[in-house]
Amino acid sequence: MPSARDAAEALAIAALGWIAEDPDRIGAFLGQSGLDPGALRARAADPELLAAVLDFVLAEDAHVLGLAAREGVRPEAVAAARAHLPGGADPHWT
């Protein structure tokens, strides 16, 4: 059975794939993160980047619902996964 951290990373990697499927979403993520596509590929397994991916998803209800539907998880699972990645114990609600 995977650890909570492993499950969170797996969901974040799936979220990155979901983001990349849509030109508007990936453009917005790259703009917010300041990464170029090459840097994104190089850091795709970095836990801090995966935390940023889930932060991006959590910023919009439509993103949370879209990812949850694609992955067959409850929307609450996205926030729960975020809690297991770097900085997840200290959410910023700004």
Please write out the topology.
Blueprint lengths: L3 H17 L2 H11 L3 H6 L4 H12 L2 H11 L4 H7 L12
Helix pairs in contact: 1-4, 1-6, 4-6
Your description of this structure?
This protein has 94 residues and is mostly helical. The protein has one domain. 68% of the residues lie in helices and 0% in strands. It has 6 helices and no strands. It has helices at 4-20, 23-33, 37-42, 47-58, 61-71, 76-82. Helix 1 packs across helix 4 (47-58) and helix 1 (4-20) crosses helix 6. It is globular and about 35 Å long. The model has no long low-confidence stretch (mean pLDDT 93).
Short description:
The protein has helices at 4-20, 23-33, 37-42, 47-58, 61-71, 76-82.
- Based on DSSP secondary structure assignment, what is the total number of beta strands? 0
Helix segment tally: 6
Q: Segments where pLDDT lies below 50 for 5+ residues?
A: none
Order of helices and strands: HHHHHH
The Cα radius of gyration reads: 12 Å
- Main sheet makeup: none
- Classification by helices and strands: mainly alpha
Terminal CA distance: 35 Å
What would you call the shape?
globular
Residues in helix, %: 55-70%
In round numbers, the mean pLDDT is: 93
Strand content: under 5%
Number of domains: 1
Could you name the key traits of this structure?
6 helices, single chain, 94 residues, mainly alpha, globular
